[in-house]
Amino acid sequence: MTTDRPSPVRRTPWPESASRPVVTPLQPSVVYAAASPDALDAQYEGRAEGYAYAREGHPNADVLARKIDAMEGAEGGLIVGSGMAAVTGVMFGLLKTGDHVVAGNQLYGRSMRMLRAELPRMGIAATLADPTDAGAIAAALTPQTRLILIEVVSNPTLRVSDLAGIAALARERGILLAIDNTFTTPRGLRVFEHGADIVIHSVTKLLAGHSDAMLGYVAARDPALQEAIRGTAITLGLSPSPFDCWLAERGLHSFDLRYDRASANAAALADALAGMPGVMRVLYPTRPDHPDRDRAAALLDGRGGNMVSFEIAGGRAAANALVAAAQHIPFAPTLGDIGTTLSHPASSSHRGLSADEREALGMSEGFFRISVGIEDADLLIAEFRAAIAAACPGA
Ligand SMILES: *Cc1c(COP(=O)(O)O)cnc(C)c1O
Predict the structure, then answer these.
(1) Beta partners for residue 148, in sequence order
(2) Whole-angstrom Cα distance, residue 242 to residue 239?
């Protein structure tokens, strides 16, 4: 056995460079070697900066978190492994047995499951109420209510919450207001400026924007709450992958451009859809026929975002024909990609509901939701015109 050359198992030092990379380096290391036990103490006690183990934090997550902090007007926000990890961090970090949550009744499907299936097992009760009516939220509060969770624009009917009314209520009663800002994004609405205590994102969607990274973000205005969420997230292992953080940071560089383009496209497509034969109804928050248009104008600065929903005649058969005819538009249950995608709540996000329950929410078999991308608007309008004509030949 020779001992005169280093084992290939030993790591090779990173090459020195007097100049620095322009691009954020990707750092996949799970572990960080400290200089000494004293040095590690200094790190854990906050006297020195540094990382120890990636579940507790890593540079790519922190670079991304500081960027989203700046967008949201937050400080010390946390990146986690998915949007649902962000919801989990809030619920399990801040609530205890006996607490009660009031939540919007059209939340993201898995958030609903968290409230209906997971929290009750921990002795935390939840009541769902209509967030377009602060009175309905008020009526659902109990002396045990600790948290209100809403989304500003609902999926898929794009109703706009009474944010001013709910924020006033939360403040008055000393209840935390958490907002899932995934649909609206900080470019649409900075929720801390409207009374939210906690902001949640599925970074997977518009912020990362390319359907290739799964991440979440959560920030609390109160640093003590943020620390509680962070500690729970580390213990539950909600931590993000460095590579996904790196991809999302890259995606964020074009976020403003993508959001503006996608919103303008969505507004144009919504207006065009409204004039197409076979289309019975178009839902877009800033259209004059939308039930919450005044709130959308006030809260969202006159912009409706990138989501459009519409309904065609002809039931499931027409829905199948439309998806088949819209060859270039992926039929996929996601949103926020650079490319336009089409989803059908009755067979995906809302398949767990009965047909009657879906009808009550205004989602028939002919109901579609479009996540509008950044393609040329004229191309998109032409593609939808052709697909709808193929699906509704008699119209
Ligand atoms: C997708 C989504 C989530 C969950 O995010 P994941 O990254 O898929 O875990 C939560 N809320 C909203 C509004 C979403 O659209």
Answers:
(1) 102, 177
(2) 9
Query: What CA–CA distance (Å, rounded) separates 79 from 68?
Result: 9
The Cα 100–Cα 322 span in angstroms is 43
Q: How far apart are the first and last CA of the chain?
A: 84
Q: CA-CA distance, 2 to 22, in Å (whole number)?
A: 42
For 276-298, how does the pLDDT look when each residue is reduced to its tens digit (9 = 90+)? 999 999 999 999 999 999 999 99
Asked if 32 is an active-site residue, the reply is no
Residue with tokens 């065609």: 312
Q: pTM (2 decimals)?
A: 0.96
Residue position matching structure tokens 């949103």:
335
357-364 own/partner pairs: CB under 8 Å, 24+ apart: 361/106, 361/157, 362/157, 363/156, 363/157, 364/311, 364/315
Residue ID of nearest Cα to ligand 1 atom 1: 202
**Measured in angstroms, how far is the CA atom of residue 114 from the centroid of ligand 1?**
12
3-class secondary-structure state, position 322: helix
Please state whether the peptide bond connecting residue 156 to the residue before it is cis, i.e. omega within 30 degrees of 0: yes
3-state secondary structure of 14: coil
Tokens read off for 341: 């995608």
Residue 290 · residue 273 · CB < 8 Å: no
Q: Judge contact between 252 and 263, C-beta under 8 A.
A: no
Two tokens at 288?
């004059």
Tens of pLDDT, residues 195-252: 999 999 999 999 999 999 999 999 999 999 999 999 999 999 999 999 999 999 999 9
For residue 127, the cross-strand partners are 102
- Would you say 169 and 150 are in contact if contact means Cβ atoms under 8 Å apart? no
Tokens representing 164?
């001013």
Q: How far is the centre of ligand 1, averaged over its atoms, from the C-alpha of 21 (Å)?
A: 33
From 9, 28, 17, select the one nearest 247 (Cα to Cα): 28
